[in-house]
Design goal:
Layout lengths: L24 H11 L6 H14 L5 H17 L3 H17 L3 H18 L2 H17 L3 H16 L7 H12 L9 H14 L2 H17 L4 H18 L2 H15 L4 H18 L2 H16 L6 H62 L6 H58 L9 H34 L6 E4 H19 L2 E5 L5 E4 L1 H18 L5 E8 L5 E8 L25 H14 L3 E6 L5 E8 L13 E4 L3
Parallel strand pairs: 2-4
Antiparallel strand pairs: 1-3, 2-8, 4-5, 5-7, 6-7
Helix pairs in contact: 2-3, 2-4, 3-4, 4-5, 5-6, 6-7, 7-8, 8-9, 8-10, 9-10, 10-11, 10-12, 11-12, 12-13, 13-14, 14-15, 15-16, 16-17, 17-19, 18-19, 19-20
Protein name: histidine kinase
Keywords: Coiled coil, Membrane, Phosphoprotein, Transmembrane, Transmembrane helix
InterPro entries: HATPase_C_sf (IPR036890), HATPase_dom (IPR003594), His_kinase_dom (IPR005467), HisK_dim/P_sf (IPR036097), Sig_transdc_His_kin-like_C (IPR004358), TPR-like_helical_dom_sf (IPR011990), TPR_rpt (IPR019734)
Length: 642
Amino acid sequence: MTELVRKPVYIVLLIITGIAPLKAQIKDITELKARIPALRDSMERAALYAQLGMLYTNRSLDSCYYFGARALDLAKRINDKTGEAEALNVLAFYYMERGNPYLAYKYINESLALFEQLGNKPKICEVTMNIGVLLSQEGKLDQTLAQYEKARDLSKNLVQDSIRPLVLINLAQAQSFTPNPPDVTPLLDEAEQLAKKQGNERFLIVARMARNVTRLHSGIPPGDIIPDQHAVIEETKANGYEYFTALAYLEMGNMYLPISLDSALRYFDMAINLAETTGYKGLHFHAMAQAYDVLTHMQPIPPQADLYSRRLLELSKEKELENQKTGMDFLQLALKEQEVAAEEAKLQSRRLLATSMVVICLLASVGSILVLRQYRKQRKLACYLKDSNDKLEAKNLQLEDNDTFHQKLISIMSHDLRQPLSSMLMLGDGGMVEHMSDAQRQYVFDQISLSAKTSLQAMDGLVHWMKLNTIGLAYTPSVVSLRDNMLTALDYNRTVADQKGIAIMDFVPESIELLAQSEMLLFINRNILGNAIRHTPESGQIIVTANMDPEGRQAIVRISDSGGGISEEVLPKLFNKERSEMASGGSGLALIVCREMIEKMNGRIWAANNPEGGASFYYSLPVSSPLAENAAPDATTISVSP
């Protein structure tokens, strides 16, 4: 039997709060819904809606959204901040499972901000953990572990440790998928002990399922684990946990892979059908991908593999289009909120001015004895109003400038998306593909694939930067190989360089590893190299170097071209927003985004003209660990044309 590699599955664990330990979820849902007509207090009704929404997270996503949205609407109308934060937490999980990271991040961060204002420490711990769950679904393992560790530290100081078992289970799950996983048994043992102490059957079931997954990942024979997994499935079914039942089916399929492909496929199908029925799109897609991977290793490949392939492609396209649209809509929403805030500030200023004038008129009627005193007060008030209006006008100008900047940012994102799509449309027109040989078609498709991949990487950099600026997500760096990142950026620009006969010399040591965000760094390298190639004449050269600063804590990268240099008028404003008005084609805006990305990653960027001609762009970023000295590498010619 062909050996199949099991893909990691993170168990999505969100806590249900405000309800006694669950043994019969369906019974609890029925009892809560029966209480709704008798409730007269709006705050109690909002809290009950939020409880129902969280209960339905493990049973039906449609019902989860229905009660979460009702809770949010009611809490906002009665200005109930606790109910609003609870509802946002429920809706964050809904959008997380729907595969919509933009709204999931928006709601989870708003929920965390409200709980921090309220000083609700258990909820701050819970939402911190849920942010880690969201990051795990995006494959950000380092950031996921950081959030879980933070949640574990927060849970140590809680008077009631009801959230701590779930934090420990999530942390154990994430650690088991690291390259050199530690022994997570102590974490799971502590989680089970706390769950037994609390009498929480739900947490005990989840802990046993997590233990089975980590045991399989550690190399224990599947035959020793399968009976325990059967018991978990029966418990999840008996308690009405539809989500955990589907997840348990998927893990059972992974356990059967080395033993029986037929049994594995049967459990994959059960997971697929249950996840689709209950509306868990993320789990449905993952289960189908796992089943498709198994089918493609069978000989001959069953017809069902083709069905799964088409369905996975359709789901991927739907998800990509939906996320792109939501990303643009979310950016427009953020800009619109800024405009509304500016209008509200103007209205407050007018009200203040009107109130001040009334006060001045009343004071003027007091009499001649108080004229001098009132005159002094009037002057002081006038100065205050002038200062307030000047500050408000400055803020309005800044908001208008940011609005223009973000509109141009959208144009950059649209340009990066259009390039691979335009290539594919051009191939389809006129029947070009039919007249190509197999080798030519393969070359063209490889080029389109490279273009699409690099465009998506650039989009990832912009989206991550937007999350840091618009949503307020904390910047969490990871270790990035500078040379690998630079080579990827060079690959993107290689075709244009070859067409102009430009030689690109690479002197970046393999030993330099940065503390950075890989997608944003790739966006920076790609744009600086693209500018250098655009301004370098035919048969010119570009030199890329990287060295350590004297203290060994920062890497300094230089990209030098042999073009005409930068005008002395433009050079001082090269990375300022004012310069974007003089630039064409979006190049000025891209450099401004590069500067903000570098500063987010605790670095610096600058440019200068070379004495021998041409220009050099520099940037510095912190390294993962201080290096005493880097040996100079051999030069590598990346792109040379006669």
